[in-house]
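CO-FOLDING WORKSHEET

Operator: S.A.
Ligand of interest: magnesium ion
Run index: 376
Mode: holo prediction, single chain
Checklist:
[x] sequence pasted
[x] SMILES validated
[ ] output reviewed
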Amino acid sequence: MGNEKIRLGIIYGGKSSEHEVSLRTALSIMKAVDANRYEVTPIYVQLDGSWVKGDAIAGQLPERIDALRLSSGSPDENTEISSTGRQMIPSSKPASLFSIGQQVDVIFPVVHGPNGEDGTIQGMLELANLPYVGAGVMASAVGMDKWMMKTVFAQTGLPQVKYVGLLRSQWENNREGTMDRIEHELGYPCFVKPANMGSSVGVNKAKNREELATALNVAAKFDRRLIVEEFVSARELEIGVLGNEEMITSVVGEIIAAKEFYDYEAKYKGAGTELAIPAMVPEHVSEQIADVAKKAFQALDGSGLSRVDFFWDEKNDKLYINEVNTMPGFTPFSMYPMLFQAAGISYSELIDRLVQLGIERHADKQRNIVDAEELE
Ligand SMILES: Nc1ncnc2c1ncn2[C@@H]1O[C@H](COP(=O)(O)OP(=O)(O)O)[C@@H](O)[C@H]1O
Ligand SMILES: [Mg+2]
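OUTPUT RECEIVED:
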């Protein structure tokens, strides 16, 4: 690429409960990258799912999230202009992305949750043949669905809590039988979650049958796939993984929640939650965490980044993997960047590395022969 700037597209926002978090992340990345080496094009996915591309935003570096959300871009023959004067690229038309594709070298999708880190945006970027940061379609999809992720962990032999996966229809068609099964296999207290959410949305602890019914009803509002887990009284430890086929891990961090569990309020409003970096745990625990995290990353065929979350039952010295987040919170004050900061990799260096990893993975994929006739 020589002295030419890397043209970096940032897709942010999205139709998810983590919309605001995504805005903060996009803003942080734009502020952190070296303007001499990057030319940034923000691509905003509005709450209604429509797309807005704004070249103008890159130069302005708005101080406030509102400014970022409301900035309008300069007209471009490939995009439609809405009545508000903004460039509107309907999300249902991936073809619009092909035109953006000619203006960027690599995309950093920082959209969390369903329609963001679940492989849908990644699939669109694959169709557009654009290099992008982070996990591909499969790792994103598996990492988003807690039930599928647990199935993969089980197959890989990773230590995890006992769980029961079920469909909403199973619950709705046979409530008593479903609760009998959960009581038999897990008992109380248990944790009920929608399989595809994130940010603790729809997650509830149940201490008896009545609470279980309520928790299942709540989770069923968010997803048709549900997961119930055995409750573990444990410390919550997290580690960052960075790389493609070869990877490094960060230091281990701990989330110390004042509330009963690490819920949405605690996560994003910082209500009484403290982060300990590095976590004060014995070396054999941090070693095991690094080892299991790499295995989980490989099992999902991860690339770029992932934050891998664990439960450590200190009393019995037992470690359980909880989940892999393929698009973890990524502001400078989020766990993942802070874990690497503590490992000696700054926020802007982290972005540099992730962009390079995305470009490398794309290049590696171009080696694949798509037409058998090419062999002859
Ligand atoms: N099996 C469990 N035992 C004890 N606490 C749990 C369990 N599962 C989840 N939690 C608590 O709920 C929080 C959110 O659950 P998690 O599975 O991480 O969902 P999310 O994808 O929303 O982060 C965890 O950080 C933890 O505090
Ligand atoms: Mg979690």
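REVIEW:
The chain has three domains: 6-132, 162-230, 235-364.
Residues 164 and 228 are 5 Å apart (CA to CA).
[x] output reviewed
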